[in-house]
Design goal:
The protein is mostly helical. It is built from 10 helices and 12 strands. Strands 1-2 form a two-stranded antiparallel ribbon. Strands 3-4 form a two-stranded antiparallel ribbon. It has a two-stranded antiparallel ribbon with strand order 5-6. The longest helix is centred in the middle third of the chain and has 31 residues. The chain is elongated, with a radius of gyration of 25 Å. 32% of the residues are buried.
Length: 368
């Protein structure tokens, strides 16, 4: 086998460095296990009932925390379906086009058969040069993973993975269970921390571990609570972290609430419609990650099909099967909950008893 070149060595070294934050979290959790189980529960707690209760509860929370963390790290981010990739003939045509206008005309023809509502800020078709595909709604290219990620939220160094459609639920559960883990340790360790701090207990090896464990758990509880609260706010409004900073652009302009269907349906889109699976790191999100129901009812005329047959499947060269124009999957149809009603006077959708958000058709730059 040929030796690695300088570029290969740098790439390998970078990949090793990416695992440093994960290793740091693993070491912190391993030390906290020793400090809590051995030094606190076994060595310091004398009451048998309290000791057994703390150990059982601790291990249940730990298992859920590690399970969610594992799924977040090792769940591969989903990439766009082959229908969004350009065929060989389309790539050749795109390479031969010199003018930006001709390129956009070609991309519009390709995107006409795809369930796409969003555009670039300049109004162009969202296209990835590196992956050579038309980007689905809410899809972005990750420079670290070097691929397009469906419903990309962000690339998280603490899990060494992209957080997107396939593992966003796992990421939320990881934050929730890690916060619960830290809060539980802080609450049960507090009385022994105070006793050691006031010298009510004799000096021992456990003193350092118990005191440092309290400070560490309390510090992480504060930071995790703010991060989890922020992502809960994003879920309730059906936004990703990227969309919170740069609203998605539709045909009529940017609209930060374009994908919001109301709080309850926004939560179901991430966690699924079966609540028994919500607390488990098991994939239950609705949809396929390539198309999402939107509260906006006005379609892009340049990307829509004939009004007489808006839902007829269409094909372009190189396709192996029909891909319906702007489809709504069964789960997405359930999310929409029927035809949206609009108030022509105020330009807002009525938010009747379903609790759906009232949204304007057009959002100005200042509002976005």
């Amino acid at each position: 086998m040929a030796p690695w070149g300088p570029g290969g060595i740098r790439t390998g070294f970078r990949r090793v460095l990416y695992w440093v934050p994960v290793l740091f979290i693993t070491l912190i959790v391993a030390w906290s296990y020793y400090a809590y189980v051995i030094q606190l529960c076994v060595e310091s707690i004398e009451n048998l009932g309290e000791k057994v209760g703390c150990l059982l509860t601790y291990h249940v929370v730990l298992v859920m925390f590690v399970w969610a963390y594992w799924r977040t790290i090792f769940t591969n981010p989903m990439t766009p379906l082959k229908e969004f990739h350009l065929s060989h003939a389309d790539r050749e045509l795109l390479e031969r086009e010199d003018r930006a206008v001709s390129t956009q005309e070609l991309l519009r023809r390709i995107a006409k058969d795809l369930p796409i509502y969003t555009r670039t800020p300049s109004g162009a078709i969202r296209y990835c040069d590196r992956c050579q595909l038309v980007k689905p709604d809410r899809c972005h290219h990750c420079s670290v993973c070097d691929k397009c990620i469906l419903k990309m939220d962000h690339h998280c160094p603490w899990v060494n993975n992209c957080v997107g459609f396939s593992n966003y639920k796992f990421f939320l559960l990881f934050l929730a269970y890690s916060l619960l883990y830290c809060v539980f340790i802080t609450a049960t360790d507090m009385q022994y921390f105070i006793k050691f701090w006031t010298n009510s207990l004799p000096e021992s090896q456990a003193k350092f571990h118990i005191m440092f464990l309290f400070f560490t758990a309390a510090m992480f509880s504060i930071s995790l609570s703010s991060l989890l609260g922020y992502h809960c706010w994003l879920v309730c409004r059906n936004r990703s972290t990227l969309e919170a900073f740069r609203p998605p652009v539709f045909h009529h302009g940017p609209n930060k609430n374009g994908f919001s269907l109301g709080v309850s349906k926004n939560i179901c889109q991430v966690f699924g419609d079966e609540r028994r699976y919500w607390p488990l790191p098991i994939f239950s999100s609705l949809g396929d990650g390539c198309s999402f129901p939107t509260c906006l009812v006005t379609q892009d005329p340049e990307l829509s099909s004939s009004p007489a047959a808006p839902h007829q499947p269409s094909m372009r060269p190189g396709r192996t099967r029909p891909f319906p124009t702007k489809p709504l999957r069964e789960s997405q149809t359930w999310l929409m909950g029927g035809e949206p009603a609009w108030d022509a006077g105020e330009g807002q959708r009525s938010s009747s008893d379903r609790g759906e958000a009232s949204l304007p058709t057009v959002v100005t730059e200042d509002e976005a």
